[in-house]
Write a structure and sequence with these properties.
With 224 residues, the protein is mostly helical. It has one domain. It contains 8 helices and no strands. Helix 4 runs antiparallel to helix 8 (190-223). The protein starts with 20 loop residues before the first helix and ends with a helix.
Length: 224
């Protein structure tokens, strides 16, 4: 795991952090003002869903009747655990292996986009695989899998829109560090080392955020 360094450009001491580790990290790196939580999650979610989305969720919730016969017991979730570990390890290694030395942000932006695309293309199939395993467990677990499928569909665009801000905020951090080190003749590239660590830390936090639905499905598999 990469240890994130916050040297030379101090974070605002007045910021009060809420939300995910990714939001807190970005707030600290860029002095982003994160407001206190107002609405509960369910209230905020209601603003994101259209009436058609609400109907889809309702249909998913009622898609498996409680009286339906269950499927034969499925195998233990060890295979799913190993697959989640493989996906996360592969993505984390790719993030850790990035070692760009460019003094302009364009190359770092491209690298960030690539890593985000890798996450999306790898985590989506893993999530679908976990849903299939849940569906084989019981009618109740099948209903949970159906709800997750609808949630992924209706919130996917929202997630992509929000995460598209990550490169923008990383560029802000990049410029902060570059300006702070303009007069550093002894170690002119030190700020780039700090930025690379920051960028890796942010992408690892995004990876964990994107994996949260899979962790929830795995928890359901363990309990079923």
């Amino acid at each position: 795991m990469v240890r994130v360094t916050y040297q030379c450009v101090p974070a605002s001491q007045g910021t009060r952090f809420t939300g995910s580790a990714l939001v807190r990290l970005l707030a600290r790196l860029t002095d982003l003002d994160v407001p206190e939580r107002g609405e509960v999650f369910a209230d905020r979610l209601s603003h994101w869903l259209s009436w058609a989305d609400a109907i889809s969720l309702s249909s998913a919730l009622s898609s498996v009747q409680s009286g339906d016969a269950g499927h034969p017991p499925a195998a233990a979730s060890d295979a799913q655990e190993r697959e989640r570990h493989r996906v996360r390890s592969s993505l984390a290694k790719a993030i850790a292996d990035d070692s760009l030395s460019a003094a302009d942000f364009a190359s770092h932006r491209r690298a960030c986009f690539i890593r985000q695309q890798d996450m999306e293309t790898s985590i989506g199939p893993l999530r679908a695989h976990l849903r299939a395993a849940l569906t084989a467990r019981s009618p109740t677990m099948a209903r949970l899998a159906a709800v997750d499928a609808v949630m992924e569909q209706v919130l996917g665009a929202r997630e992509r829109s929000l995460l598209s801000a990550v490169p923008v905020l990383l560029e802000r951090r990049f410029e902060q560090l570059r300006q702070a080190h303009q007069s550093d003749e002894a170690e002119p590239d030190r700020w780039l080392d700090i930025f690379r660590k920051d960028m890796r830390g942010v992408l690892l936090a995004e990876l964990d955020l994107r994996l949260q639905p899979c962790e929830g499905l795995l928890d359901a598999l363990r309990a079923s």
